[in-house]
Amino acid sequence: MRIIKLLIVLLVAVGFFSCSPKYDKQYNWAYPVTGDWMVKAYYTVGGIQKTFGPLEMKSYNSSFGRDSIWIDDYPVYSTSTKTWGGNFWAMKFKSAVDMSNKTFNTTGTINALSGYPINIKVSNGKIVGTDSITMDVIFGDDPTTTYRLAGHREQSYEEYTQQ
Q: What span, in angstroms and rounded, lies between the C-alpha atoms of 46 and 115?
């Protein structure tokens, strides 16, 4: 009788552990507009075209509804100089998003970094395919220059979800 019980327990255990569950990937509502990006900044100064970068940037969903995203270049605050520094402009701001067209724009938003409240305007922001990003940005402390930020997803969404 003990052998039969042991065999039944063993059969149940083997059956339970031999079945591996199949998981469906769950995408964030803001995919593919959100992600980690490697971009370059293209701009013109005195008739000369310049390029800055590559630099890291992140876009992610807002906790308020499904109408906006955050754009962030990983700003760091220096306690010794009491200033913000980032990969590019020390920016962190919210932008309106249209998921049906994979576009995002703002007519002017204030930088969310305390002590650095510049106005930021984004036009022509869009995701091309699922892994390319482009946008035109004007910063309030340099209103005569339009910066074209363009690049690619640092890693694909599939790689990101498998970490």
A: 30
CATH number attached to the domain at 29-161: 2.40.128.220
Look at residues 106, 25, 26 and name the one whose alpha carbon lies nearest to residue 62: 106
C-alpha 4 chain-centroid distance:
57
Sign of the torsion formed by the C-alpha atoms of 76, 79, 80 and 82: positive
The closest of 104, 119, 21, 108 to 70, measured between CA atoms, is: 104
d(CA 2, CA 64): 60
What's the distance, CA 113 to chain centroid?
17
Distances (CA, A) of 57 to 41, 73, 117, 133, 134: 11, 4, 19, 11, 12
The span from the CA of 55 to the CA of 34, in Å, is 16
Question: Vertex 95, ends 88 and 123: CA angle to 5°?
Answer: 75
pTM above 0.70, yes or no: yes
| pLDDT mean by block of 10 residues, the chain; 163 residues | 67 58 63 88 92 90 80 77 72 90 90 82 93 94 94 70 52
Q: Where are the chain's structural domains?
A: 29-161
